[in-house]
Amino acid sequence: MTTGTVLVIGGGIGGLSTAIALRNAGFTVTVVEKHADVHSSVYGVGIIQPINALRALETIGCAEACMAVGYPATAWGSMYDAEGNFLFAMPGTQIEDSDLPPLNGLTRPQLHEILTNRARQVGVAIRYSAVFTDLDQGGDDVTVTYSDGATETCDIVVGADGVRSQVRSHVLGAELQPRYIGQSAFRVNIPRLPEIDRIILQEGPDGMAGFVPIGPDLAYLFYNAQMERSERIPDADLPRVLREHLSSFEGLTGRVRDEFITDDSVVVLRPEEALIADAPWHRGRIVLIGDAVHAITPHLGQGAAQAIEDGVVLAECLVKHSDVEAAFTEFTDRRFERCKLIVDTSLAIGEWEMGRLPGFDNVAATNHVLAVMAQPI
Length: 377
Ligand SMILES: Cc1cc2nc3c(=O)[nH]c(=O)nc-3n(C[C@H](O)[C@H](O)[C@H](O)COP(=O)(O)OP(=O)(O)OC[C@H]3O[C@@H](n4cnc5c(N)ncnc54)[C@H](O)[C@@H]3O)c2cc1C
What we know:
The chain is about 35% helix and about 30% strand.
């Protein structure tokens, strides 16, 4: 199947990547996004792109642009203790017959702009401020109703509307929801110091601090803090609270805390949520991708990578099968175990960081995931 109309609900990383892959395969593709424009849904911090994300982006023609504006690193990462003593090297993996680096970092707005430009270039229509209110499956099509009362009919709907997906309730029921894992991520952009040439992790007494290069001169600091979901911190207090969390760190984290995290710093705090939906990830002509079916906490930097891979694999499955049911079934078959490994390992790292999984080998688990991710999708 290479013709037909596809409506992608959600213009995030997964939705845009899927739209490009499907358009390249021959489909007529429209993306509807509830926010008003390309920038309104993207907070301004950075994103880790592991080698498998770059491979999937290469397939849709976006890898080079990401590496041109970002920071392609020659190794995945290194780990240090809270005093700043070196513990372990994590070189990362290579992909056979490919010269992609083990890691690239860039800002989220940059990634969004690259995906949006590419989508438009290949002929994807993107509509902003479009909120669907209902989906109605006919025999061979789906009718979508929008909040302004307009309707439209298409052959396939892709639910790419993220962790709080509304499309999910039409496929898997409204009861299936992500769960808060007990950690939230503080992030703040800082100048890229020379030693931040890969992911730098520093294991603190109460949480993991780390650094990610996201441009020649830009990096971000993150800190995974154990906290209640209900705890609310006013934006103006976030720099102070972050500095308090980092108070016992020496080494790079201590230096960055003292030199760069000021009361004026823009600190972002996001809850970490996880979900892996049982197969199948479709019903009739509606299929789910990305965080809507596998919400991944940031511990391995793989959430967006998996959403991009979903798009590439979905396009391959639809091209291979003339029957939509067969295509969607193969899609979940190819994706489920890979995504589950990432969700489960990310959760285990979070548990270990919170002191609930003593003896867990974070480095071995990360190396294992990186090796599996380098395998073909
Ligand atoms: C703190 C943190 C750090 C992370 N860091 C990384 C990282 O470094 N690397 C990585 O690979 N992953 C990372 N992730 C995960 C990554 O951000 C997600 O996995 C990824 O964004 C999922 O893509 P998606 O397209 O499925 O969902 P999203 O990117 O959330 O996109 C969903 C889109 O759908 C739109 N939408 C929602 N509802 C509707 C509706 N009803 N109608 C129309 N549009 C709608 C939203 O506005 C949004 O644009 C991180 C996650 C967190 C929480």
